[in-house]
User: Fold these one by one.
Assistant:
Number 1:
Amino acid sequence: MTAIRFVAMPTTDAEHLWNGGRDAYDGLPATIVSDGDGNPCRHCLGNIEEGEELLVFAYRPFPALQPYAETGPIFLHKQPCRRYAAEEIQPPMLAMSPDFIVRGYSANDRIVYGTGAVTDIAEIQAYAETLLARSEIGYVHVRSARNNCFQCRIDKVKAPAPAENGA
């Protein structure tokens, strides 16, 4: 069994947008009001409640442009929120849909073909563990099964470095 962690959008990315920065397509985020369920914040990994303002913008969760660097619309609370910290627990926002696409990527940010699968929410953790046990998989994305929107990333928990023996 591979220990995993659910990873939210980096706070530096969220702060960039909260401070008036531009999105992956060099546009300003749009501000809309949440109509309730189905508006997951990719920073706190919770739902943006009805009546709350949110930002919608193009997001590319990859370090550089390249053919596999998917970009799509996502949501963020308009007001700063705390980044998801319970990384060992499947985020509550993943209960908003019956299933998601779970797909493996190599360490150089390329899709590993044959890994993408529509996965029931109860099976996300097990499937991610199976993928991350493979040497060619560097990390996993959870994406909407209906719209392919990025939800969160799943990483292996790094084993602690062995303690050095003092001489």
Number 2:
Amino acid sequence: MSFPDGFLWGGATAANQLEGAYLEGGKGLSVQDIMPSGVMGPITLEPTKDNLKLIGVDYYHRYAEDIAMFAELGIKAYRMSIAWSRIFPKGDEEQPNEEGLQFYDRVFAECKKYNIEPVVTLSHYEPPLALCRKYDGWRSREMIQYFAKYAKVVLTRFKDTVKYWITFNEVNVTVISPLLGGGILTPKANLTKQDMYQAAHHQLVASGLVTKMAHEINADFQVGCMVASAPRYPRTCNPDDILKAMEDQQEVSYFVHVHCTGEYPFYAKRIFRDYNICLVITEEDKELLKNTVDFISFSYYNSKTVAQDAGQYQGAGGNLMRGLKNPYLEYSDYNYPLDPKGLRYMLNYFYEHYQKPLFVAENGLGQSDTLISDENGSFTVADDYRIKFLNNHLVQVNEAIEDGVKVIGYTMWSIMDIVSAASAELTKRYGLIYVDRLQDGTGTLKRFKKKSYHWYKKVIETNGESLV
């Protein structure tokens, strides 16, 4: 099998999970800096030393070394994010932080040196903490203006350096985990569906505004949306389970639909009615939503099996998208369903509905890796389980391309080991590059190539022909 010429083979990371240097270079605090246990645990008033994200994997000081390793791997695209609070430390300053802009100047210069295409996410789960405390994150319409100001600065600064932009990472997560997706400090138990969907509306409006702005700054910009995805399978052929799967799928498609058509889908009326939601939508909002995206990007880790009466079935794990145990699938050590064909399904689903180019922005396997010495005395990780996972998913990406789906790129998660966003841990690793940093914070921070690194290098060199 082979992939289209110019296919963007790559890997992905997020600023809050790898940069570290949380107060260096003029950076302000982000909401991530007070989440020492991720969304799994309580937030703190101030950063604490047990928050592994404060150091991350020290990319801020080692980016040149890391990007050189990415280049040796042969990647064509590097999906990354800009830390909003590195540009506007509190979010509401009159002028941006020049030191922060210069850091990304250097990062993009390294990418250009190796002909790596940056794919840049503007907001990846880390709005400035000061804004979140003042406005309770995206619950407030005031966030739109601050996000737009930040976006205008970086879009203008990097207009000749970056072509591909993503407005919000996994924008649908705001209605699943309001703290992670929307920087909302009020506990989810104290929020209504109205609160969460109104916050998501503010993000959708902001996305439309920034998409419009981006195309005005540089007509060649390609701007995309990004959602967390998982196909919803009915647990049985009972019509109640079929309808449950349909309704769950609509809650994801809702966000893609707005980004691609400029209006809310027909089934939004039912969602609003069932949850007693009455969105505040201005005429200006409606106009801004009409600024549709150029491509759809999404994360895919696992499928989700659902049932109307879920209590009678065993549950399964997953990255936010957690459902019931599917008897037809294998499971990872973390109880994630392993479902490569679900990725082909999602690619077909999105393309059938919206006819926009697709970008697989995240796809990977989290496991507890062990660093070992190989026959040459070098250190590596024998992660055949990751190779199998990536191979099987890429085969299904190729199947989707054969189906006629326009897939422009694949940036696996994550190109190197980084701190988990959801749980702030380093035990479960996703990278092709092992970083010597342990859960207790110790380690040399040295980088080592895993077996999967060499495998992926060959996949890229052969444009997918080495897949089996």
